[in-house]
Design goal:
The complex is a heterodimer. Chain A is an alpha/beta fold. Chain A has two domains: 4-175, Rossmann fold, CATH 3.40.50.620; 195-324, TPP-binding domain (Rossmann fold, 3-Layer(aba) Sandwich), CATH 3.40.50. In chain A, 27% of the residues lie in helices and 27% in strands. The longest helix of chain A is centred in the last third of the chain and has 18 residues, at 307-324. Helix content of chain B is 27%, strand content 31%. Chain B has a nine-stranded mixed beta sheet with strand order 11-10-9-12-8-1-6-7-13, sandwiched between helices. The radius of gyration of chain B is 22 Å and the shape is globular. At the A-B interface, helix 4, strand 7, strand 9, strand 10 and strand 13 of A face helix 3, helix 4, strand 9, strand 11 and strand 14 of B. Chain B: It holds the Pfam family ETF. Chain B: Heterodimer of an alpha and a beta subunit.
Amino acid sequence: MSKKVVVLAETRDNSLRNVSFEAIGAAKTISEGGEVVVALFGSDVSAVADELFEYGADRVVIVEHPHLKYYTADGYNQAFLAVVEQENPDAIVFGHTALGKDLSPKVASRLDTGLISDVTSIEGSGDSAEFIRPIYSGKAFERVVSDSKPLFITVRPNNIAPLDQQVGKGGSTEKLTVDITNLRTIVENVVRKATDGVDLSEAKVVVAGGRGVKSSEGFEPLHELAKLLGGAVGASRGACDADYCDYSLQIGQTGKVVTPDLYIAAGISGAIQHLAGMSNSKIIVAINKDPEANIFKVADYGIVGDLFDVVPLLIEEIKALKINA
Amino acid sequence: MNIYVLVKRTFDTEEKIVISGGSIQEDGAEFIINPYDEYAIEEAIKVRDSAGGEVTVITIGNDESEKQLRTALAMGADKAVLINAEEDVEALDQFSVAKILSEYLKDKEVDLIFGGNVAIDGGSGQVGPRLAELLGINYVTTITSFELSGTDVKIVRDVEGDSEELTTSLPLLVTAQQGLNEPRYPSLPGIMKAKKKPLEELELDDLDLDEDDVEPKIKTVEVFLTAEKQAGRVLEGEIAEQAKELISLLHSEAKVI
């Protein structure tokens, strides 16, 4: 039976995040030919609605309000519940992002429904859909179903394919007026620390450094390599504990779990708690002086050598490749 | 100031996961306090030490969970509550856990609740926000800094690497992110004292809950491991040649750059 699915879109710097297109892809699978309605919130976001249609949205519901300029759980919850009330969806899909993680449990609790967080793939479709999600930070997986209505999932960035973009495909946009009141949290300021402008959890390429990087300056070549590849820089717990970098870069069972297309581990030994955070990456490259380092056991390609010799050479080779292309 | 801390007993991060008979083997595994909950305990103790009051650690678990609660008491928490649901229900989901906690807390005077932002086993991060919603109080997740003055709270929260500076007020639930503090180790006198600190054990009956009230809304039908990744190719030759070969492989074979 075809279903109506509501997706919450997310923007960053006034453009849509990739995970929103992936969420629409997931919604299409769940809807089985039903309708995919995308909710879009902000203080001035209408301009990006067209792109949502190109990735498969059937309809876009926009809620604009000065209080929605910054995300707050109270503000977004009020806006989203108004959309749910209007649409009465069979299913809801959010991205498993900072915003999605923060908001989805509140909405699920309010709707008295279950929530399947951090879904990495969907098997089957419609009523028979089953959801795969990592547990123990990716050391194992579970297959989960929900009996409660509406079905509610969050999808991990970079795992579920978006639909092919259909340039020029339009759809109907409507504005919903919601009174956003009583915000209990006030956002005073946002300090941008995320390096290179690419979010670690969504990055297609991650260049990560470990104790072998030796200092915060040692991260510079890794930043250069990441920038060249349009990726983000990450780190092992060892590097964070040694104060070479901020904890927000930590990848592992404590820290972030990433699944980029390409993961380059430089000077990382590969402790089990680090592997949990990255071993499901599609291609793994290990660079380490120690040929016995654990990281080589999960690497697709390995170079035994000093990262300070190898990384600059990689940077040169990539530049050469770009010129030839 | 009444401060509560939500604590979960989890596998040690160094443990490998073994599945037998369709479920995860727990025999012989080391268990710890969920690492993010340790930051929560530490922050709760610091707040109590400066603002006064009492820290109560709560867990939902089984007899084994007493060990983690005693550790929290040894760190400096004042009281512990163990809600043992094992005999009443087979499986709990995040809804069930939040529901049980809210039944326990609903008649209490709650000023502050600390929790970890996520448990490293289930990894959903739902319980904190769900509990706050059930109690009708505000919440802030993934915090890296917490400053209390009177009932006003200044918070810094980690948002995918960016820092959001927020203001809010009590009553409040917050979940801890790495970087919030450096959790203390229990001292020897702390460990001795912890043995005598009150630890209340409750079952669902004591909270006027029966099985149907906490029936999970989502169900795990299978747990499985993925095929272990095979070691790939370690390149050989001069370092410069290896670098050239690697970029060529990533470009034409793996097609990731």
